[in-house]
Amino acid sequence: EPEVTQTPSHQVTQMGQEVILRCVPISNHLYFYWYRQILGQKVEFLVSFYNNEISEKSEIFDDQFSVERPDGSNFTLKIRSTKLEDSAMYFCASSFIQGTGELFFGEGSRLTVL
Amino acid sequence: RKEVEQDPGPFNVPEGATVAFNCTYSNSASQSFFWYRQDCRKEPKLLMSVYSSGNEDGRFTAQLNRASQYISLLIRDSKLSDSATYLCVVNPYNTDKLIFGTGTRLQVFP
Asked: What is the spatial distance between Cα A12 and Cα A64, in angstroms, rounded to a whole number?
C-alpha cells in the first residue's frame, strides 16, 4: 500500500538552530501539507502546497518556516531558527484531490528543541 | 467557543459494548466533516466521512446535525483494537485546511 514517508523520525536540536524535515508524499498525489501536534494537544494545520507554491498557510507558519519541493519527490519543511515552542510532532500529508478531506499522513517527525 | 469541541474522555468500555462520541463545531458554514482515528503516538488516519444523511461503515455509524452543528460517531460491538483516540475533523471551506478536535480517547477492555 502506498504511503507517505518522513525523515527523520526524531530530531533533537538546540534553540536557534535550523531544522529540515523531509517527506516523500504518495507518488501520484498533487496536494501536500504539513500539520503539527504539540504533545497532548490537537493536530494543527501549518501549510498546504500545490503546483509548486503555497496555497494556504496558518498564522503559526510565520517567516521562520518555509516549504519546498526541490526535486519532484521530496517535500521539505524548514524551520530557520528553532524555538522551544516548536517542539512537536510534525506530520506531512498528501492527497490526490483537494477538498475531499481524505489526507494520507506520514508517521511524523518528532522535533525536540532544547 | 472552540472551533471543534469534543469530550476528551477516556471512555472505558468492555468488549462488545456500544459507545457513542459527540462533537460540536462553531462554523455554521462548514462544508465537510470526518472522523479520524489516532493510535498512541501515531499519525491520524481517516476513519470515515460524515454525510448529511448519516452513513454507516460496518460497526461504525456517523451522523451530522447541521442545525445543531453536531457530529456523532457510534461504534457497535467494540473490539480491543478499537482502542484509540477518535478525532472529529471539520473541513470548513473544502480546502483541506482541516480543523481537528482534541480527540476522544476510547479504551476497550476484555
From this structure: 18
CB-CB contact of B21 with B72 (8 Å): yes
pLDDT band at B1; cut points 50, 70, 90: confident
pLDDT, averaged across chain B: 94
* Residue in B33, B41, B98 closest to A103 by CB: B98
- Average pLDDT of the residues in A58-83: 94
Burial call A51-66: b when 16+ CB within 10 Å, e when fewer:
eeeebbbbebbeeebe
Q: Percent of chain B at pLDDT above 70?
A: 100
Q: Which residues of A touch B32 (CB under 8 A)?
A: 99-101
What is the DSSP annotation of chain B? --SEEE----EEEETT--EEEEEEES-TT--EEEEEEE-TTS-EEEEEEE-TT-EEETTEEEEEETTTTEEEEEE-S--GGG-EEEEEEEETTSSS--EE---EEEEEE-
Put simply, the answer to whether A95 touches B91 (Cβ < 8 Å) is: no
